[in-house]
Amino acid sequence: MKKRVFKCFTNYEKEEIWLNQMAAQGWHCVDYFPCRYTFEKGEPGEYTYRIQLLDQVPTHVESAAYLEFLEEAGIQAVASSMRWVYLRKKTADGPFEIFSDRESRIAHYRRIIYMLLPLGLVNLLFGLGILGRWEPINIFNLGGAVLLAMPMVGYYRRIQALEKEGQIRE
Amino acid sequence: MPLEEQGALTEAVFYILLTLHKPLHGYGIMQGVQELTKDRLTLGPGTLYGALNTLAEKGWIQAFKSKQDSRRKEYIITDLGKSVFQRELKRLEELLTHGKLVNGRKGL
Prior knowledge:
The structure holds two protein chains of two kinds.
Chain A: E1 2-6, H1 12-24, E2 27-33, E3 36-41, E4 47-53, H2 61-72, E5 75-81, E6 84-90, H3 102-127, H4 139-166
Helix pairs in contact in A: 3-4
Chain B: H1 11-19, E1 24-25, H2 26-36, H3 45-58, E2 61-64, E3 74-77, H4 79-104
Antiparallel strand pairs in B: 1-3, 2-3
């Protein structure tokens, strides 16, 4: 049995939590298209889900090598969207975290911020009429800038908290 | 010693260098570290893959050409990597010696 759910997230960590809540109810994500999730009914809690932003698009050689390495480790990529990949691992095979130390976690947050920042800036400039002539429709650019800024602030706070901890622990 | 060459290695890097004293592929490193630390340390695949690339760039490890045609990329530690590893061992030994000294003294 399959079902489709339409839902949009701006923060990938909240998205992860939701995917795992769905999995706990036996709904396992098998496909993703922006704001559209396809779930397949299975054993509750069979899989743990994680989302990662890759350095390169999934078809790039580097990413392909990484995804192959994940497969060896029992981790399956169920979907991708631009540079985002949706990963899952059988819960019975043990805990599943993509990053196991502070440095790599910070690097991942930074990678996301660097991707969002130019998009946010362009939207802001159009939204304020600094780029191009301002039309009422540009209000959507302002909205976009705010939508992009919110997760960026969230990730930035996570980085700061991690860096603070990094001052006393390796 | 330049500032960049001082300081502790991350736990992930330390165990990667340790396990790569014999050729291993990524998943082999993960399993090796898990066994050695009795599941205390599980390297995340993202962390491990990133570290392998960085270490290869620094020349501390290199791709290992195995005789049997293997799809999986194996790595091995280089001489440079070994010297970094030995230096870290010395540093850790110093910490351990001093730590034990405190333990031996009473009423500190």
